[in-house]
């Protein structure tokens, strides 16, 4: 009788340990559920995903295994971070480019004003030389030199205006 008493005491402990072991094992065991997924393009701009093929427009999707998707998600997250950094760098470069373009335009406009002032000064000198009161001996040489400068400044002004239009 003592022997049966010992078995009765040990049996609940063993059952508890076995139950605890099975519960732990069931928690630690990961089960994968498999289901077919169908993509249905019923109306333009509307995509329906379903586990049932509703009509002929529904096509079975082929998805990679769960393990591969986890790796792909991790790599796409890393590439998203790098693309965000690239987009930020691109925006910064664009901003720098726009600043440089603005500075370039300002410099060309300043140069255009200077060239126009130089042309006005040359035109005034030409007008002075052509006045009847001026009877200089070197009038023809001075006039030829001034007309050459006038042509040069007019060409510069045309080029600067062309650059501003770009």
Q: What's the quick description here?
A:
It is built from 3 helices and 3 strands, in the order H-E-E-E-H-H.
Would you write up a description of this structure?
- With 166 residues, the chain is mainly α.
- The protein is built from three helices and three strands.
- The chain has helices at 2-28, 66-130, 139-165, and strands spanning 38-40, 48-50, 58-60.
- Strands 2-1-3 form a three-stranded antiparallel beta sheet, with no helix packed on it.
- The chain is rod-shaped.
- The model has no long low-confidence stretch (mean pLDDT 78).
Percent of sequence in beta strands? 5-15%
Number of helices: 3
> Low-confidence parts lasting 5 or more residues at pLDDT below 50?
none
**Major pleated sheet:** 3 strands, antiparallel
Helix content: over 70%
Strand order of the largest sheet: 2-1-3
Could you state the order of secondary-structure elements as H and E? HEEEHH
Radius of gyration: 44 Å
Name its key features.
three-stranded antiparallel beta sheet; mainly alpha; 166 residues; rod-shaped
